[in-house]
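Hi Y.,

Following your request, here is the sequence exactly as I used it, all 304 residues.
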Amino acid sequence: MSGVSPGERARARAAEAAAGFILVLICLYCAIPFVWVFVASVDAEPSQFLKMPRSWSPHHYTSIFGQHDGIRWIANSAIVVGSATLIVIVLGGLGGYSLSRSRGWWRRPFLYTIILIRVVPPTALIVPLYKVLLTANQPVEFIVRAIMPSGLVRSSMHIVGFVNGYLGIILVLAATQLPLALWIMKTYFDTIPRDYEEAALMDGATLLQRIRKVLIPLALPGLAAAGLFAFIIAWGDFLMPLIFLSSNELQTLPLGLFRAYMRVNQMDFGFMAALAVIYTLPAVIAFGFARRFLVQTFSGGVKG
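Below is the corresponding structure, written out as tokens. Let me know if you'd prefer a different format.
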């Protein structure tokens, strides 16, 4: 350090200050839309331009739950996205473990095949996917009509229907996010030494005990990362619910935001801003909880 001249130290400090200043500008630029959305959501007289509110009011938030179907939108999104994320975590964990521990010739072709699903645009899959689900929905409707009273057929199909039902959209969202989860979990299980499992096996642990007491605790960061990606992408998915859900009772939060934007009579910026804040919060909260696991997953996982 004694060989560094005062001029070089001054230039280094100036470079650090310039980099910090540029970083602050970028952060401010990225934060402006979020600031506008939050300010407009509590402004009694919001507009499409960013301005300081003359008066603050929670009216836009209360109207979402009191005058509109906000509770239903949030509940539908929570049911659909939560169920899809749970399926992705379970199947991604089991499949990733199998792919990591298997030495079959088929493993690499299978991994590259499933990741190709992420390359195909979702719009290219809508027509064949809708046809498949519509065909599968017919026998389900036949069974429901045979065993359920006529007054409960519609509500039952809203639960088990492949089209315009919870089950169909849950399976679609889970299937679209599962390839990425399999890659994440396979890569993470590769970092977990087999010694842990062999030690548990030597102690007489059964398969379920090894999964519950060894594999799940060790794989928790990877599971959290896979679940975080699945949750955020599924929570923000607009196209699939728009295509596969037609009943007002099943609309999710993205569809509710879309309906609010498409109103012909008026454009309520405050209502849309409040709805956008509510729409953003779950993803932000989920990232806050899983951030530590996400960093651990992509920084090397478990060290042997």
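The chain is about 75% helix and 0% strand.

Thanks again,
Q.
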